[in-house]
Write a sequence for this structure.
């Protein structure tokens, strides 16, 4: 089962509906990880985790080890109120709910997008490439 399936399971069948808040959350998460994000994509997110003292958590998602969990409070710490507020506005969900869903979504999403166990030097690509990776069934 792929991460898109896992996300569909986690969020329910509404994931495929473009106006659904959880679909918008997945798109916001992909946007945050893409090369054309305002926060420097995956490499920028890795830096934010390291600055927050949580580099080992995101490292577990990228590397071959078991994915370490992250709490919604840690997500909030890493993203900061401004970035989390922006994602909440995009999704139409309250910040606490957004952080909670991101804590469930990000470990598997980043794990799936880094199958070689490392962050690609050139980044993960644009949103189209990321969606292609997620829907690719290996």
């Amino acid at each position: 089962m792929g991460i898109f399936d896992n996300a569909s399971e986690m969020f329910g069948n509404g994931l495929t509906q473009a106006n659904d808040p959880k679909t918008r959350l997945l798109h916001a998460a992909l946007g945050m990880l893409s090369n054309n994000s305002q926060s420097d994509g995956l490499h920028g997110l890795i830096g934010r985790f390291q600055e927050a003292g949580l580099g080992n958590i995101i490292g577990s998602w990228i590397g071959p080890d078991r994915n370490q969990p992250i709490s919604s409070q840690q997500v909030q710490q890493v993203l900061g109120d401004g970035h989390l507020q922006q994602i909440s506005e995009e999704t139409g969900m309250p910040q606490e709910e957004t952080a909670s869903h991101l804590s469930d979504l990000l470990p598997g999403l980043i794990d799936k997008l880094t199958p070689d166990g490392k962050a690609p030097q050139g980044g993960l690509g644009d949103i189209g490439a990321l969606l292609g990776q997620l829907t690719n069934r290996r």
About this structure: The radius of gyration is 14 Å.
